Amino acid sequence: MSGGLAAATLRVSTPLVFAAIGGLLSERAGVINIALEGMMLIGAFGAAAGALATHSPWLGAFIGSGCGILLAAVYALFAIQFRANQIVAGMAINLLALGITPFLCKLFYDVTGSTPALGLDQRFQVAPFYACWMLVGLVFLWTKYSRGALRLSFAGEHPEALESAGVRVNRIRWVAVLASGALAGLGGATLSICLASSFSRNMTAGRGFMALAALIFGKWKPLPAAGACLLFGFAEAVQIRLQGVTVWNGKAVPVEMVQVLPYLVTMLVLAGFVGRARPPAALGKHHG
Amino acid sequence: MTRRLLQSVSAATAGLVLGLAVTAIAGENPWHVLKVLCHGAFGTRADVGMTLFYATPLIFTGLSVALAFHAGLFNIGAEGQLTVGALAAAAVGTLWPECPWPLAPVVATAAALLAGMIWGAIPGWLRARRGSHEVINTIMLNFIAAGLSSYVTLNLLKNPDSQNPETAAIGAHYRIARLGFFEPAPVSLALPLALVAAAVVWIFLRRTSLGFELRAVGSSELAARAAGIDSGRTRLVGLTMAGGLAGLVGVAEVLGNAGTFRVDFSPGYGFTGIAVALLARNNPIAVIPAALLFAALHKGTADLDMETEHVTREVSLVLQALIILCVSAERLWTWKRVRTLASVMEDIPEPLTGGRI
């Protein structure tokens, strides 16, 4: 029972970890990423469609990631280049992904809502679970020891200083947003070609927002953010496990209450009741 | 004023043209798609009625988002606020079915308003006193509202006669009158209520001192503080009122339409409200035509599944997204003008980007 719960926690937190690390790159560079949700969703679709077409989960994940990058490019174009409010543009990107994926499903497969089921050979069994924790380790080391990560942080904390050192801030922000699209796309790919066996309409169901919440809960640092994803994944796993279980004189456990716990905790953390979270100083501010 | 109107109209047109271009790529005749859209939204009297029915909640949520914008706050939480508002209206109607007529709808309306206000006050208080950004908090509260409402519906107020996740029917006295002209479309007295709400918000923002303080905090927190305005309190008031406006969607849905709270009744009214407010440039009166446009899109695209080969009703979301992007792309509209401080500062209030997110 408990071993099963641990495994389930690892499984359901994997998409969150990918997306949260993606969000970390973009928010550290000073670009708010509400659009993670949409990038995950388009990634989930791209991966399922890619795996169906190529019969390879690896190529599927690659294509899903590419779709995430494409959508991230649209986001960056508006949020960085056209100086749109980042929250507004992010919400629009989410709507775009929500609307365009069923449309593409209809176009490619002539069904509304979901792709055909994937065969076992077209799906991942365990690869994403290893990959995501390797990614966390890599990003952790990178943020700690590399010059690139220092530039990334400066783009988010003090862009003027970086610009005066001769570095193009907006170029760094572009790269960071595209990378976040790639990773969020991989998170979505994990959903559709590993945890499930097809893409279905709005299958991310708020996981992008949850990844964002984990990122804040983890104070914009890779290891704590990944830990927060595990915690949120645990809540989801418990909730799945408790469905239909009865305690207290035959009454069902209120799974909805377990379900909302991560959101409550995030609000408490953000309000400083449980630790303090400080965002990058220039988060959401346009440059140049 | 005229420049902004021009921007909104051209943004909406650009979004529509882009959206139709997408359908053309999919192999549809865009002219045919446009005809289906217009026919679905305005073809018959009942179609017009359905468009007005969808427009009613969008006016409330559009006003909610616009009012918060004026205070420099981003209310992504209208979806959660309208959920608790509708749930409260249904709860009152279920738990006190014998309430007499003139009182019943008033009590239920007050309940919807109050519940929405509470759901708005929480992020308002957190922003004012704890400094945490309302965007994340309102998103979190949307999820919490969804969980809470499905728990209450399934465990406490379940309709025993129905397989659907909905509450027991409200007492008959709670129902508000429908405008018979649009039958069978459920256009109710909630529509004139929404129009009145738009006028009230306009008067509040332009003619009352609290409304002035709200706009002052929204345009420059520093200046407002220097003028002795308590920006924290003003923000709290702003989000509370915004929550109340969104909560009134419960009147249209529960008292005017379903007679019960149905889990997931809203096709994203709260999020479309953001698009409505943006297109209306936060002008409460302009919210009305903007809501009508998005309602017409929602109603019109419903027929696309049947009437076309490749296009689905979700195209309305794509159109919404493209319109929002076109409206919000500041630099698209300041293409040739010299970027003065004023041109950067206008439209989207500065404190939106401050605070914690």
Question: What does this entry show, briefly?
Answer:
Chain A has 288 residues and is mainly alpha-helical. Chain A has helices at residues 2-28, 36-54, 57-81, 86-109, 127-145, 147-157, 159-164, 169-195, 207-217, 222-242, 255-270; strands at residues 246-247, 251-252. The two termini of chain B are 32 Å apart.
Explain what this protein looks like in three dimensions.
The complex is a heterodimer of chains A (288) and B (357). Chain A has 288 residues and is mostly helical. Chain A has one domain. In chain A, 72% of the residues lie in helices and 1% in strands. Chain A is built from eleven helices and two strands. In chain A, a hairpin with a 3-residue loop joins strand 1 and strand 2 (251-252). Chain B has 357 residues and is mainly alpha-helical. Chain B has one domain (2-349): Orthogonal Bundle (ABC transporter involved in vitamin B12 uptake, BtuC). Helix content of chain B is 69%, strand content 0%. Chain B contains 17 helices and no strands. Chain B has helices at residues 2-25, 30-42, 45-70, 78-95, 103-130, 134-156, 190-207, 209-219, 221-226, 231-247, 249-258, 269-279, 287-301, 304-307, 315-328, 330-333, 341-345. In chain B, helix 3 packs across helix 12 (269-279), helix 7 packs across helix 8 (209-219) and helix 12 packs parallel to helix 15. The longest helix of chain B has 28 residues, at 103-130. The radius of gyration of chain B is 21 Å and the shape is globular. The two termini of chain B are 32 Å apart. Mean pLDDT of chain B is 87; it is low at 336-357. The chains are: A mainly alpha (288), B mainly alpha (357). At the A-B interface, helix 3, helix 4, helix 9 and helix 11 of A face helix 6, helix 12, helix 15 and helix 16 of B.
